[in-house]
Amino acid sequence: MARGRGRHERRGEMPLPSEDEGTMLCIVQRVVGAGFLEVLCTDGEVYMARIPGKMRRRVWMREGDVVLFLPWGTADKKGEVVYRYLRDEVRKLIDMNLLPEELVEEVAGAE
């Protein structure tokens, strides 16, 4: 039987948003259900994000989490969650000026 990763094992390198890949940083506003989230992105738009099956089973998402989001490029404002950042990774993103601290506080204050 295969062993799962330990709780304190390293996850590898933290992926960053890339304009070449089309990814952007978003904050979970609401958990809709059935594997979907409503996310507020750094461009000010609200999108409907789908959680892929491999993440749905292993990574729990809740309101206020910062995620890396890949829009599908269609007009209906939908896309897919690529990665969920941990608390220390969010602090690094704020320090690197990739994520506005006001956006994080705005969503945290609305809860």
Please sum up the structure shown.
This protein has 111 residues and is α+β, with helices and mostly antiparallel strands.
Radius of gyration of CA atoms, rounded to a whole number: 14 Å
Distance between the termini: 42 Å
CATH top level is: Mainly Beta
How much strand?
A: 25-35%
Shape: globular
Look at the structure and give the mean pLDDT. Answer: 89
Secondary structure: number of strands: 5
Task: Decide which structural class fits the backbone.
Answer: alpha+beta
Low-confidence stretches: none
Encode the helix/strand succession as letters: EEEHEEHH
Helical content stands at 10-25%
CATH fold call: OB fold (Dihydrolipoamide Acetyltransferase, E2P)
Any idea what the CATH architecture is? Beta Barrel
Main β-sheet, spatial strand arrangement: 1-2-3-5-4
Number of domains: 1
The CATH homologous superfamily is named: Nucleic acid-binding proteins
Keywords: Initiation factor, Protein biosynthesis
GO molecular function, one term: translation initiation factor activity
Organism: Aeropyrum pernix (strain ATCC 700893 / DSM 11879 / JCM 9820 / NBRC 100138 / K1)
InterPro entries: NA-bd_OB-fold, RNA-binding_domain_S1_IF1, TIF_eIF-1A, TIF_eIF-1A_CS
